[in-house]
RNA sequence: CGGGAAGUGGCCCAAUGGCUAGGGUACUUGGUUUGGGACCAAGUGGUUGUGGGUUCGAAUCCCACCUUCCCGACCA
């Protein structure tokens, strides 16, 4: 990425709150030109939204890769036959977008990918020597939701990171599962989220053990019970088993869900390998999902104020919004942004021929962690005014001081 | 799928049976501004969600459908 000029960018913020906005995150995503709604539950990511998705995806990739997982990309189109093998053509019938192609094949747009990954592994994995491995993808899923809700929180087409681990036995699965669990903690932490991990039902995925990662938000669709006394969350409403205090109901957004699948899919689809003793055995699987597009509203729900979004540094589409209030300073602003570019700092230069108020308001709405102002003060003393979005703290810095300031922040981030 | 609310220029709204459907904002042009959505002027843009009905006359009343949002059911 590099610096962008606002006047040349596809960013057209709305002055009024969109009427259809159901919650704060959705309101800011629409108002701030991150997202375009084509129809209920169907969205396009505009350039700003695309940048955020990219930032989130890079964080996920970093942690998945360092946990030893390998990225692949599976087809979204899936023949119905593979679903018949596991019987999930019936279980997921209602949410599947299903259709018949010109050759009279019945296809669906993948609502999830256990069946496909198992077909892949069935073909290639034949020996214990190949195990274990974990594969993942970041891809669009399609689900015919009965009621899309809260914008990207529940949509019919959404982006998911789904990973699948393959081991020779339960012990191996436990190791793979723990690795993913650890990676998930790192991912959500880096995304700036306060999250809760709890044991959960495995539902239509099947399997024995599963954990959910949830973030606190009034637009959440899951409910946990929180104990003010000791800070624990519980699935059931009951007096806290630890400290006997009354618990209170909290709404949560599910952002991740991991499952120990065991051999449910490998047995049904005949994904077997020869073990050390030459015995045919089904591979032991785990699956690990993150709602990538759902992370946008989840992060915003935890990070906003009256003006707009307050992006965590690792997620923001731009690291810095640089407001230029005097035309004569534009070239200087651009060369400054080029210097920042070398330090991996993405700058949105607001060079528009608009009043200062418009620029300040848009900067607040778009939500870069830092807003810098080059105007008459800069002309007087060469100091750039920097406002920290989150704390509203304002400081005046020379260019050199500012570069060092951002470098320092960048290092903290890493 | 059950219950509720709402559809009027791109966006936010007004007009409750009666003149050519208004205003704000956005956009275009000209001018003045320029540190918190500034001002003046002139413009572009509407078969009032769709179809039917009642009426001399419908954005407005009635019916059906469509769309969107909310609550619920469902939810990997």
Describe the structure.
The protein is an alpha+beta fold and 414 residues long. It folds into two domains: 34-302, BirA Bifunctional Protein, domain 2 (2-Layer Sandwich); 318-413, 3-Layer(aba) Sandwich (Rossmann fold), CATH 3.40.50.800. It contains twelve helices and 22 strands. The protein has helices at residues 24-31, 47-66, 80-86, 88-91, 114-124, 170-190, 264-268, 292-302, 330-342, 356-366, 376-381, 399-413, and strands at residues 4-5, 35-39, 42-45, 70-71, 77-79, 97-100, 106-109, 133-142, 157-167, 195-199, 210-216, 222-227, 233-234, 247-262, 272-274, 280-282, 284-291, 320-324, 347-350, 370-374, 384-388, 394-397. Strands 4, 8, 9, 10, 11, 12, 13, 14 and 17 form a nine-stranded mixed beta sheet that branches. Strands 1-19-18-20-21-22 form a six-stranded mixed beta sheet, with helices on both faces. A hairpin with a 5-residue loop joins strand 15 (272-274) and strand 16 (280-282). The protein is elongated and about 80 Å long. The model has no long low-confidence stretch (mean pLDDT 94). The structure holds one RNA strand of 76 nucleotides.
């Amino acid at each position: 990425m590099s610096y962008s000029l606002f006047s040349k960018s596809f960013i057209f913020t709305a002055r009024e709150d969109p009427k259809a906005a159901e919650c704060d995150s959705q309101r800011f995503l629409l108002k701030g030109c991150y997202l375009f709604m084509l129809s209920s539950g169907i969205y396009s990511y505009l350039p700003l939204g695309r940048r955020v998705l990219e930032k989130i995806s890079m964080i996920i990739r970093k942690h998945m890769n360092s946990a030893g997982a390998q990225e692949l990309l599976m087809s979204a189109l899936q023949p119905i036959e593979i679903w018949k093998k596991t019987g999930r053509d019936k279980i997921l019938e209602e949410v599947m977008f299903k259709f018949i192609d010109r050759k009279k094949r019945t296809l669906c747009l993948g609502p999830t990918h256990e069946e496909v990954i198992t077909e892949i592994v069935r073909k290639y994995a034949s020996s214990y020597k190949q195990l274990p491995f974990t594969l993942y993808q970041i891809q669009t899923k399609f689900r015919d939701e009965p009621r899309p809700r809260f914008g990207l929180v529940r949509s019919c087409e959404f982006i998911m990171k789904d990973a699948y681990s393959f081991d020779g036995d339960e012990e191996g699965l436990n190791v793979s599962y723990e690795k993913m669990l650890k990676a998930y903690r790192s991912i959500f932490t880096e995304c700036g989220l306060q999250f809760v991990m709890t044991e959960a039902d495995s539902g239509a995925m099947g399997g024995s053990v599963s954990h959910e990662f949830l973030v606190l938000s009034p637009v959440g669709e899951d409910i946990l019970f929180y104990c003010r006394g000791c800070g624990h969350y519980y699935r059931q409403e009951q007096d806290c088993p630890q400290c006997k205090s009354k618990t209170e109901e909290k709404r949560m957004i599910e952002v991740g869900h991991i499952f120990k699948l065991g051999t449910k899919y490998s047995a049904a689809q005949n994904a077997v390998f020869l073990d050390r003793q030459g015995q045919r055995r089904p591979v032991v699987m785990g699956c690990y999902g993150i709602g990538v597009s759902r992370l946008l509203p989840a992060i915003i729900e935890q990070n906003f104020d009256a003006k707009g979004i307050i992006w965590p540094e690792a997620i923001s589409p731009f690291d810095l919004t640089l407001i230029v209030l005097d035309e004569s300073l534009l070239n200087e602003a651009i060369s400054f942004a080029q210097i920042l570019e070398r330090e991996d700092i993405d700058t949105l230069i607001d060079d528009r021929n608009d009043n200062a108020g418009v620029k300040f308001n848009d900067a607040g709405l778009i939500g870069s962690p830092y807003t810098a102002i080059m105007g008459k003060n800069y002309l007087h003393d060469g100091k750039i005014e920097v406002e920290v979005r989150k704390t509203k703290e304002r400081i005046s810095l020379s260019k050199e001081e500012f570069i060092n300031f951002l470098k320092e922040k960048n290092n903290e981030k890493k």
